[in-house]
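Can anyone check this?
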Amino acid sequence: MAKVTKTPGNFLYPLPPCLITCGPVEKPNIITLTWAGSLCSEPPIMGVSIRPSRHSHPLVKDTGEFGINLPTAEMVRAVDWCGN
């Protein structure tokens, strides 16, 4: 296999856990994801991947909005709780 050289990019590696908030104000929802990343640096655009079978998928699709929250290492227990 030939060597492939990649140029530097604005990727989030390793893939950190992200807390995605979504849903209507009356009934907010949170999901833990690792499939999130930078799509464009100018303008700054982030993207996430949520499987259609997940509860949060229709919430994002219906409202067209979501928040990406990047927790610190000290928040690992809270992130684990949100993911279950």
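Reply from J.R.: I decoded it. The longest helix spans residues 56-63.
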